[in-house]
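Students often ask why we bother encoding 3D structure as a string. The short answer is that it lets us treat folding as translation between two languages. Here is a chain of 334 residues written in the first language.
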Amino acid sequence: MSFQIVVEAPGVHRVEAHTPRRPGPGEALVTVHAVGICGSDREVYRGDRPEGYARYPLVPGHEWSGTVGAVGAGVPATLVGRKVVGEGFHNCQVCDRCHAGEATLCTDGYEETGFTRPGAMAATLTLPARLLHALQDGADLTAAALLEPAACVAAAALRADARPGERVAVVGTGTLGMLAVQFLKAVSPADLLVVGVRADREALARRFGATGFRTTDQESPGDYDVVIEAAGSATAARTAAALLRRGGRLVLTGIPAPGADGLDPTDLVVRQLEVRTVFGAPPPAWAHAVRMFDAGLLDPLPLVTHELPLTEFPRAIELVASGDPEVGKVLLRP
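And here it is in the second language, the structure alphabet:
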């Protein structure tokens, strides 16, 4: 028997039998290989995700990989049997933002797999085939389950527009931070600094391409061309901005708790800093992440520390919330 996780309401979930939904016109049915747990899944379970960004009851799961098992009318039959990952945002495709390629800014309202639409914490997932990105036949689907956070980081890397020979830095040493290191390494920077709160992450950061490492209590020169913030802590934005040279480029990806220390507008103006932000990943970022993965330039697998059966959803949430330095990316296997 196959199963799915349903979060009935904040703090209330059940494990129930899963019945695959046949794909309709334009849809594909995917057999889920693995699904990741991230901070937003914790928010869904705790009930503190911002209003309008979760709809109960729901099947969570927005970070996933799988294999296409069936397709509906209008979808190429050659997609059946392909290894895939998929975008989360169900955009309208007709508004100005969608036509501009900015699916995460769709003006028709927020709809996302695993939050307002059924997610991948189930044996199968049925969704619009246009959201799928096919992988190479030999792709490691366990590693590919991290391509959703990688796509978000890809969006940050594209916005940062780092160029060969520039000095770049990453603030944050979690999953997003370590993925950001790999994206920035691919552009051949002159220097790639990683800043975090945990000194034990230095070896992994250097494995992924960092040329320098500092903890947040160590002073770093403010002469970097590009900084990607991927920590989401209360002071991360200020820490990141302090690393930049005058006229430098800052991309914020973390979402701290309300009331966190903000950027100093006087500092931004006087130093003429360029600040951009990322929430989710539009199609070009997904394409960039998949290309990097297929080319062997992106290796998410070392970030995975736990793989659990889908039925151990509560334990997976506890692990992610534990703060244990031995816990990295936690995957569930249907």
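Translate back mentally: The mean pLDDT is 96. Keep this in mind for the problem set.
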